[in-house]
Each structure stands twice: as C-alpha cells, then as structure tokens.
C-alpha cells in the first residue's frame, strides 16, 4: 500500500492528475491511477474504499465514480471513455475487467492512428470508442476474472460468477 500512496502523493505534488480520494480511502501497493483527462475530478473514490487494481480514464472522456466501503482487488482494470458508476459496499474480485467502451477503434487504420497518437503525443482527445455507461449497484459482488462490457447495469446485491462475460444487464 505504501508504494501506491507514495506514487499518488508524488503525482499530486507535481500537479499531475490522479484521483480524488475521500476520507479513509486507500490505494493498494499495486494500484494504478491512469488519468489522461487532465483533471483528478474524473476519478472519484469514496470513503473507506480500497483499490488495488487499475483505474483509467481516456483523454477524450471518461468518468469513474466508486462509492463508499468498496473493495477492488489486484489485477482489476476499470477503463472509462464515458461513465462507470460503482455503488456502495461493492466487492470486485481479482483480474476483473470493466469497460464502458471498445477501448480502441475497430477498423485497423483507425487503430493504427490511435497507437501512433499514443506513442507520439499521448491519448487522442478526439476519438469514437462507442461508449455506453456501466452501472454497478450497491452491494454487488463481481467474481474473479469476470468481464463487464459497455452498456451493462448490474443491480443491487447481484452476484456475478467468476469468469463470467457480462454483455447484458443483470438486475436480479
């Protein structure tokens, strides 16, 4: 936990965008906050929440909001180009992927252009990744290795089995 919090502190002191950590929120030592939006306000972590995974917002858009008393395990990736909202008391196991977009253009030429941009000037501020919001309700549990795709809503207290690929909303 110390390494991630030192990284967070160093980036904050250097004026680099990271996230907003509420009182009692902690980052694990393997946690990664990747914020291409240039404002820490686009990644918000609620009180008493522990994040050991990776949170990433794209330069063209993206917003991650995590409620209070949540646990996000190591190896988990939450990538937003639109909006991802995680309720209170949510447990997300290790190696889960949550994406509200395609993460890259689907046409090869557009994908290569995106990669060139990333390597030369950073993540593009103008790109279409077919974003659709993801919402995970209060008390939900997401099992290890699950994949939550764009446009999905997971209802309150819903349990997603380990290894599941969720492409449609699960409300009960």
Brief synopsis:
The chain is 15% helix and 27% strand. The chain contains two helices and 18 strands. The chain has helices at 2-13, 108-120, and strands at 20-21, 26-27, 32-35, 43-45, 50-51, 54-57, 64-66, 71-72, 77-80, 84-86, 91-92, 97-99, 134-136, 141-142, 147-148, 153-154, 159-160, 165-166.
Structural key phrases:
2 helices, 172 residues, globular, 6-stranded parallel β-sheet, UDP N-Acetylglucosamine Acyltransferase, domain 1, alpha/beta, single chain
Plain-language structure description:
With 172 residues, the protein is of the alpha/beta class. The protein has a single domain (2-166), classed as UDP N-Acetylglucosamine Acyltransferase, domain 1, CATH 2.160.10.10. It is 15% helix and 27% strand. It has a six-stranded parallel beta sheet, with no helix packed on it. A six-stranded parallel beta sheet has the order 2-5-8-11-14-17. The termini are far apart.
What are the segments in which pLDDT stays under 50 over at least 5 consecutive residues? none
Shape: globular
Tell me the count of domains.
1
Helicity range of the residues?
A: 10-25%
Largest sheet: 6 strands, parallel
Quickly name the level 1 CATH class.
Mainly Beta
Quickly give the CATH architecture: 3 Solenoid
Secondary-structure element sequence? HEEEEEEEEEEEEHEEEEEE
Secondary-structure content class: alpha/beta
Strand line-up in the sheet with most strands: 1-4-7-10-13-16
Q: How many DSSP helices? A: 2
Give the strand content: 25-35%
In angstroms, what is the radius of gyration?
16 Å
Averaging pLDDT over every residue, what do you get? Answer: 84
What is the number of strand segments?
A: 18
Distance between the termini: 35 Å
CATH level-four homologous superfamily name: Hexapeptide repeat proteins
